[in-house]
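INFO  loader      accepted 1 record
INFO  loader      residues=84
INFO  predictor   begin
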Amino acid sequence: MADPLRIEAGDLEADAILEAIEEGRHVVVTTTTLGDEHEVTLRYDGSVYYCDTPTRLHRHESAREMRTCIRNMGYGTAPVGDDT
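INFO  predictor   done
INFO  writer      dumping tokens
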């Protein structure tokens, strides 16, 4: 397995994160919640997308669901000019 891609929340667009995990990389996102720094691992097993947080494992059945999660949680951004 390739080395994980380590980023800060908001560094990449959601589509770039999706591309990396669909290529088999784990993406480790450093995020700050209530003043505490946490790492979230985003990954894909070929059929299901996962967000491993310190407290939960989120599962997403489609790239669209995963993209929405990445944007809503602030892990990745929308393309410039995309307000969806």
